[in-house]
Design goal:
417 residues, alpha/beta, Nucleotidyltransferase, domain 5, 3 domains, eight-stranded mixed β-sheet, three-stranded antiparallel β-sheet, binds zinc ion, DUF7869 domain-containing protein, DUF7869
């Protein structure tokens, strides 16, 4: 803006013949330079429009008259930001070089968050950055952390949470809620949520002579090769998948006989509902069903793999041709956040063993570890991947006609012959 403020020269209050009212008005006037001309403005209007106090304008004027220059900026804040722009950019480019992991299971709200290898952390990355960068681009850990936290949304390792986010939400809102009516409402909701979770675990625990419980889930993607080399952090690795079915309720002991691990590498087949259905179908056809009338399948509600129409279609198809004694198949999905299933216990055992090994280069090395806790099957090479999309077409059409409300999957299904 090239408008400048100048105090009204004394001669404008010149005429003693002016009425008192005029004098008062003129005293309150200032003059602004506009296009090189002095223009009188009402002081009060000027101050009100700019929401300034009189003293502030006077201070600016005083300094301007003294030096004929605008005052220098002496306020606080990060005014050196531009000085570090090149370093900031270098750090950003460095962080972008890392390949995020493909997480097998992520809740919808995590879609923008990326995950790096769980062995990494900010300190390690900072050391790696300073090792590879030219000396004048070196940064402090604090600066590196700042860029990491403010320019990206990156975490390390698996997004699987131990604490249920719904439970956490209830407990936190309860802390700040003042109105007692609302408090009661939240407490009721939390109680229902917990009861539903407990009911789910009761279903998983139940033991009856005529009931067979199956629980299944996918392990997180395991990378190949697993080597202690920084290069793996930058490269896209080959994944091996492990889909595990546990036969029996959650109170039964885990043995190699009742745990079945279906494994395949990503070059052999995808990791979608088609593969899951093929594994499940194989499992259902190969277990001893004598004396059972009800099969209860329990799975984590992961939409891409376990919780979808194709699994329902496959189950119906299997039930239609199942042994005479099988009358009912139930499918139960847990309450989100409370989905610790028997397969997760198996995964915990295998992952503990995997962590101990520094180098794994062949898929069979993973399979040896799986075989310590499960009967291992190789999908694609030993067990065919069937085209369930094609063979379930008729059943899926029928399901669409029955029309689930809002096309949303429910938490449980039961099919009778
Ligand atoms: Zn919960």
């Amino acid at each position: 803006m090239d408008t400048k403020i100048e105090k009204l020269p004394p001669e404008t209050t010149r005429k003693k013949t002016l009425s008192k009212k005029h004098i008062r008005r003129n005293e309150k006037a200032e003059k602004l330079y506009k296009n090189g001309k002095l223009v009188p403005v009402c002081r009060e209007t000027f101050l009100n429009i700019l929401r300034l106090k009189k003293g502030r304008v006077q201070g600016v004027m005083r300094r301007y008259f003294g030096t004929q220059q605008s005052a220098t900026e002496r306020r606080g804040g990060n005014r050196k930001k531009h000085l570090y722009a090149s370093k900031r950019e270098a750090v950003q480019n460095f962080i972008k070089k890392f390949k995020p992991l493909e997480i097998h299971y992520s809740r919808e709200k995590h879609t923008n968050r990326l995950y790096l290898h769980p062995d990494l952390n900010i300190h390690k990355m900072w050391v790696m950055y300073n090792d590879q960068v030219q000396p004048d681009f070196g940064v402090t850990l604090g600066f590196f952390r700042l860029v990491f936290n403010t320019s990206f949304n990156i975490g390390f390792g698996s997004p699987r949470q131990d604490v249920c986010s719904t439970c956490l939400q209830f407990s936190e809102t309860l802390k700040i809620e003042k109105a007692s009516a609302k408090k009661v409402n939240i407490m009721t909701q939390a109680r229902i949520h917990k009861l539903r979770a407990a009911a789910f675990f009761d279903n998983l625990k139940e033991e009856r002579d005529d009931l067979l419980v199956l629980s299944f889930d996918c392990q997180k993607n395991l990378p190949l090769p697993k080597i202690p080399d920084q290069a793996t952090y930058y490269a896209r690795q080959l994944y091996i998948y492990n889909f595990t079915v546990v036969i029996g309720s959650s109170s039964q002991k885990l043995t190699k006989e009742n745990v079945h691990a279906y494994t395949w590498t990503e070059n052999e087949s995808l990791k979608g509902s088609n593969e899951i259905c093929s594994c499940l179908f194989n499992c259902l056809n190969n277990i001893d069903l004598t004396g059972k009338t009800v099969i209860r399948m329990v799975a984590d509600g992961c939409g891409g793999q376990n919780k979808n129409m194709m699994v329902l279609g496959m189950t119906m198809k299997w039930l239609a041709n199942a042994p005479e004694n099988i009358k009912t198949v139930e499918i139960i999905y847990p309450v989100t956040g409370h989905s610790f299933l028997p397969p997760d216990r198996v995964f915990a055992f295998t992952e503990k063993q995997i962590r101990k090994l520094e180098i794994i280069v062949h898929p069979d090395e993973y399979r040896v570890i799986f075989s310590n806790h499960a009967t291992v099957h190789n999908l694609a090479s030993d067990i065919p991947v069937l085209n369930w999309k094609q063979s379930c077409k008729d059943i899926l059409k029928l399901l669409a006609k029955l029309a689930l409300p809002n096309q949303q999957m429910q938490t449980g299904y039961s099919y009778k012959k």
